Amino acid sequence: ATGSTSSFPWRFPLAFQAAPSILLLISSIWLPFSPRWLLQMNREDEAHAVILRLHRRPGADHEHTAAREFYQMKSQLALDRQIKATVGHWDVFTTAPNRRRAFVGFTLMFGNQFTGVLIIANYGVLLYATLGMKTYMPLLLSAIWVTLSLPGNIFTAFFIDKIGRRTFMLTGLGGILVALIFETALQAQFLGTNNAAGQKAAVFFVFLFIFFWSSFLDASQYLYLAEIFPTHIRSSGMAIGMVGLYVGSIILL
């Protein structure tokens, strides 16, 4: 828009993404081993030590809590081993209930991509420009839109256990539906006109979209996907769900 030929505006955001990756890499030195994995490797003492460390807090009976969790995890792993001894790698497809879970997981992750979240995330700058935003505003609005995912996901972390996965996702999808109805109606009416108020209202509903997506749907879909599968086929079920997500992404983008 300004005629600048500088590559900094696009090189810096890409390069800056290395910063949190480097921070995570350095911090991984202090990352504990998964206690469940340690139990799978028959390293029970190390697993108990990790659980104890994770529960340690001043002025509380953390040792009892840690011991109870260790026993629960050990019993669950023994049950999983017993079940795995009688099933194969494709057990996720061998029974009708498991096939239904696989279908639900795939269609959930596939369908959520078609709410349009990736379209707005990737083409937001063009969208805001067509809605009358000028100079730096399209890029700024797009950056703010993506950043709003952070508080939304924090909200999910605090309240999804209290409200429930299904209620969360239905609320998110319902809110997104309302936002998209108003968005398409406003664009049909005011796109290409000089009505600044109507175009700004359309921008508002783009932001209402990300409120419902990030607060109720983004993290919730992964949590729900994992929890509908029994432990012994959870990894297979998660893989099927992620195939749905990426197939939807490839089609859209």
From TrEMBL:
<dbReference type="InterPro" id="IPR036259">
    <property type="entry name" value="MFS_trans_sf"/>
</dbReference>
<dbReference type="InterPro" id="IPR020846">
    <property type="entry name" value="MFS_dom"/>
</dbReference>
<dbReference type="InterPro" id="IPR005829">
    <property type="entry name" value="Sugar_transporter_CS"/>
</dbReference>
<keyword id="KW-1133">Transmembrane helix</keyword>
<feature type="transmembrane region" description="Helical">
    <location>
        <begin position="236"/>
        <end position="252"/>
    </location>
</feature>
<feature type="transmembrane region" description="Helical">
    <location>
        <begin position="12"/>
        <end position="33"/>
    </location>
</feature>
<feature type="transmembrane region" description="Helical">
    <location>
        <begin position="167"/>
        <end position="190"/>
    </location>
</feature>
<dbReference type="InterPro" id="IPR050360">
    <property type="entry name" value="MFS_Sugar_Transporters"/>
</dbReference>
<feature type="transmembrane region" description="Helical">
    <location>
        <begin position="202"/>
        <end position="224"/>
    </location>
</feature>
<comment type="similarity">
    <text>Belongs to the major facilitator superfamily. Sugar transporter (TC 2.A.1.1) family.</text>
</comment>
<dbReference type="InterPro" id="IPR005828">
    <property type="entry name" value="MFS_sugar_transport-like"/>
</dbReference>
<dbReference type="Pfam" id="PF00083">
    <property type="entry name" value="Sugar_tr"/>
</dbReference>
<keyword id="KW-0472">Membrane</keyword>
<protein>
    <recommendedName>
        <fullName>Major facilitator superfamily (MFS) profile domain-containing protein</fullName>
    </recommendedName>
</protein>
<keyword id="KW-0812">Transmembrane</keyword>
<feature type="transmembrane region" description="Helical">
    <location>
        <begin position="135"/>
        <end position="160"/>
    </location>
</feature>
<feature type="domain" description="Major facilitator superfamily (MFS) profile">
    <location>
        <begin position="1"/>
        <end position="253"/>
    </location>
</feature>
<feature type="transmembrane region" description="Helical">
    <location>
        <begin position="103"/>
        <end position="129"/>
    </location>
</feature>
